[in-house]
């Protein structure tokens, strides 16, 4: 059995200059929001859900992006509503959010 039921990696990479990157779309802020929401729902910790920062996940053109393991499901998102939908549907109910999947 995996240490975590779900391990969520948010690309929070910041590139120099005008290069496209996830952090230009508020990735760090939304990662912090997701982590706090998971904690408030008492879903964080061993055998539960872990939210992590990641460096570049090499999908900048599709960003901002997250990847959820062990399913290896990739999502893009725009705002807190999208993050809430990913948490509620994928992490809690086990349903893939097709409209955000990449």
SSE diagram, text form:
Elements (H helix, E strand, L loop, with lengths): L5 E6 L15 H14 L8 E6 L10 E5 L3 E4 L3 H13 L10
Parallel strand pairs: 1-2
Antiparallel strand pairs: 1-3, 3-4
Task: Report on the architecture of this protein.
A hairpin with a 3-residue loop joins strand 3 and strand 4. With 102 residues, this protein is of the alpha+beta class. The radius of gyration is 13 Å and the shape is globular. It has 2 helices and 4 strands; from the N terminus they run E-H-E-E-E-H. The chain has a 4-stranded mixed sheet, covered by helices on one side. The chain starts with 5 loop residues before the first strand and ends in a 10-residue tail after the last helix. The chain has helices spanning 27-40, 80-92, and strands spanning 6-11, 49-54, 65-69, 73-76. It has a single domain (6-100), classed as 3-Layer(aba) Sandwich (Glutaredoxin), CATH 3.40.30.
Mean residue pLDDT: 94
Q: Looking at the structure, what is the overall shape?
A: globular
- Unreliable residue runs: none
Which structural category do the helix and sheet elements fall into?
Answer: alpha+beta
CATH topology: Glutaredoxin
The tally of strands reads: 4
Percent of sequence in beta strands: 15-25%
Provide the spatial order of strands within the biggest beta sheet: 2-1-3-4
Q: Helix segment count?
A: 2
């Amino acid at each position: 059995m995996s240490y975590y039921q779900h391990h969520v990696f948010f690309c929070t990479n910041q590139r120099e200059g005008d290069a496209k990157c996830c952090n230009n779309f508020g990735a760090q802020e939304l990662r912090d929001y997701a982590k706090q929401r998971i904690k408030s729902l008492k879903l964080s910790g061993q055998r539960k859900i872990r939210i992590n920062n990641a460096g570049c996940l090499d999908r900048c053109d599709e960003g901002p992006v997250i990847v959820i393991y062990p399913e290896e499901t990739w999502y893009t998102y725009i705002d807190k509503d999208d993050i809430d939908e990913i948490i509620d549907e994928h992490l809690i109910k086990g349903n893939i959010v097709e409209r955000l999947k990449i």
